[in-house]
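User: Teach me something about this protein's shape.
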Amino acid sequence: MTVSDLSPRLALIASLVPDGAALADVGTDHAYLPAALLKTGRIARAVGTDIHSGPLQSAAVHSESCGVADKLRLVLCDGLENVSPDEADTVVIAGMGGETILGILGRAPWTRSGVRLILQPQSKISELRLGLTESGYVIDGEYLVRDAGRIYTVITARGGSSRALSAAELYFGVLRLQHMPELLAELVSERSAKLENICRLLEGSAKPGDAERLERYREVLTEIKDNMERGGADV
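Assistant: First, the predicted structure itself:
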């Protein structure tokens, strides 16, 4: 398997890994990503971790079939617990919830020092954005890709001091509305419609916290509308 054989989601992540990187792939599963990068010579070494032994056994078989087993260290551990800082300058955490990703990074503070993060959350994306900016990371890129009918978000980040994100940035991402790619336009439309529906359901609710949620969601919708009417701004 080479990079061209990867799914669209993994191919996007692979394209964001710098040439020559020392890669740590958290939750490596079958090790498709590091094996493809090693086989094509994009990187020279990698560490693949997984919390379960079964996926690591599959990863060992796959890396052996690709002829890269000698360049890939497979580690049974939770997140980055058994990965040393000198083993990785690029960390990929893909296919996990945003809160799980934050937990992994929180237990590996060395990732705030010169490490490139490539993160693909499956859920809790707003919580991930907020947690990153509050925990000593700067989001320096966001990318969208469609894979098997779903739009995925991939976030790149690094250690550093970050400004507070607006309500719309937390919900839609640190992206530009100007010259929107097709997927971003679709994502904004889809999520705006969902927010508008939620607002209708929250109107008149007396449940604790619903009034605050309604105000926050209205703020997001107003910010998005204002940016669209101005022809695009940072979002």
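Now, about its shape. The longest helix spans residues 182-202. The first strand starts at residue 22 and ends at 26. If you'd like, I can walk through any region in more detail.
User: That's plenty for now, thanks!
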